[in-house]
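User: Could you go from structure to sequence for me? I need the amino acid at each position, not a summary. Structure tokens:
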């Protein structure tokens, strides 16, 4: 079978790190990875070897990965990062500037414009902070220098090289986060290949510089994860005593019915059907705890990032953006 080239466009202006190259060259993981790409996907071995000579192993990325995660924060600390007046106003501005795409995508998919906007607002501050690492550096560093997550990032590196071949991109050019998440919506390479959308039907899925493609891609992600059009997301609830605590189980997927949680002394101002599957969630405030029930659509939000803090930040930011936009329209 004829070997398919990786389509690399080398440039003499790249500054190579000899020490970094030596470290990556000596690993069996790299050799195994190259062999897999050659045998499984018909990449050219010599071109891949040349490509990895240009890859820089970033020690600071590994340091960042080993820091305590945001998930170790309490809700009131996490909330302060994302629920700010500045981020809410910037969300309204993003909506105004991209209203055509947001309206069209919402009508087509049923995913609310405010949810899409909030995702992008949490991920990259509406496309402002998309990351300055070369994606191939980040993924290679974590695939070959971070054993704890080597399998995951090796898989993402595989997807990255495939998408570069498919999209005719130079693998040394795309930039993203320290973990290899890319563009305005911060898609990992596997997510790009599975969910990235082309809003204008121009043959490109540009999630780096085209907000419309990013908007369509976020919505597509939610659609494929079974977003329910017109359904609720989450409701604030109250409890009479501590009986509810037995319903605070691990995971994010709805695992009880509303009737079952009601039987534990939990009440809500909104009407919720008794057989509605829900997830009871507790959020620590500086004084006391807030109780919420997450519905199916809340679970869908957490498929983007498997964190109840993330899911609630997106939801509350979306509601704040929607409310302020309505006020601006009235004025």
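Assistant: Here is the amino acid at each position, in order:
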């Amino acid at each position: 079978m004829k070997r398919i080239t990786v389509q690399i466009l080398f440039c003499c202006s790249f500054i190579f790190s000899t020490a970094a190259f030596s470290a990556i060259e000596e690993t069996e993981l790299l050799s195994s990875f190259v062999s897999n790409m050659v045998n499984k996907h018909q990449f050219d071995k010599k071109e891949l070897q040349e490509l990895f000579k240009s890859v820089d192993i970033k020690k600071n990325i590994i340091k960042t990965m080993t820091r305590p995660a945001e998930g170790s924060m309490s809700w009131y600390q996490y909330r302060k990062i994302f629920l700010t007046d500045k981020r809410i106003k910037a969300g309204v501005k993003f909506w105004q500037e991209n209203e055509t795409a947001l309206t069209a995508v919402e009508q087509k998919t049923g995913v609310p414009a405010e949810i899409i906007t909030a995702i992008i607002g949490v991920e990259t501050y509406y496309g402002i902070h998309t990351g300055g690492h070369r994606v191939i550096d980040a993924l290679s560093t974590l695939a070959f220098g971070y054993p704890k997550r080597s399998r995951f990032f090796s898989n993402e590196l595989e997807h990255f090289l495939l998408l570069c071949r498919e999209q005719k991109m130079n693998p040394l050019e795309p930039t993203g986060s320290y973990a290899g998440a890319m563009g305005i919506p911060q898609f990992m390479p596997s997510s790009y290949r599975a969910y990235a959308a082309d809003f204008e039907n121009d043959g490109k899925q540009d999630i780096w510089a085209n907000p419309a493609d990013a908007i369509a891609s976020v919505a597509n992600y939610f659609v494929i994860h079974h977003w329910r059009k017109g359904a609720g997301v989450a409701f604030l609830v109250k409890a009479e005593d501590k009986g509810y605590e037995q319903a605070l189980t691990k995971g994010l997927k709805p695992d009880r019915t509303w009737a079952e949680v009601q039987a534990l002394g939990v009440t809500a101002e909104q009407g919720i059907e008794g057989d509605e599957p829900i997830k009871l969630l507790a959020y620590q405030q500086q004084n006391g705890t807030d109780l919420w029930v997450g519905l199916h659509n809340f679970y869908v939000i957490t498929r983007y990032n498997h964190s109840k803090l993330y899911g609630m930040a997106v939801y509350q930011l979306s509601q704040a953006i929607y409310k302020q936009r309505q006020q601006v329209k009235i004025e």
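One structural detail worth keeping in mind: Residues 18-57+131-181 form a domain with the Helicase, Ruva Protein; domain 3 fold (CATH 1.10.8.350).
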